[in-house]
Amino acid sequence: MRFTHAIWDFDGTLFDSYPVMAAAFHNALMEWGIDEPIDAIHAYMKISMGDALRHYQEQYRLSEDFSARYKSLGKSAERGNIIPFAGVAELCKAIRQSGGSNYLLTHRGESAVFFMEKYGLLANFTELVTSK
User: Fold this and answer.
1) C-beta atoms surrounding 10 within 10 Å
2) pTM of the predicted model, to two decimals?
């Protein structure tokens, strides 16, 4: 079977980012004196980051300061720890070499481009749709 158009998401599809994001979220909760299992945080994040934030903000009456702190911890943790899933680079290259196209559709902004460049994926993509 030959794929002609592959549309990819970034988090949890191209890159194994959820463990890093869940750990940053856990660390932010710990700073507020809240100890939640990382597996539970991860489960909410897989629905969406918005769901995870809403759930914990409602459950513990957390302010927007919590969200800002999580984002700060997440950004600093990501730079050295997010890696593509095994085989992703080869699969994207094979799709492109067989005449197909890869597209990225993500809520991420410049960090998606940063990681795709860092791991040599960018050349295999026809178009990137990111935030800002």
Assistant:
1) 22
2) 0.84
Query: What domains are there in the chain, each with its CATH number?
Result: 5-15+83-129 (3.40.50.1000), 18-81 (1.10.150)
What pLDDT, in 10s, does the model give residues 88-128? 999 999 999 999 999 999 988 999 999 999 999 999 999 99
Dihedral angle, C-alpha 114, 115, 121, 124, nearest 10 °: -50
Alpha-carbon distance of 16 to 124, in angstroms, equals: 19
CA distance 106 to 113: 11
Longest dimension (CA), the chain: 53
Tell me how many degrees the CA angle 124-125-130 measures, rounded to the nearest 5.
145
Contact between 109 and 131 (Cβ < 8 Å): yes
**What is the distance, to the nearest Å, from the Cα of residue 61 to the centroid of all Cα atoms in its chain?**
25
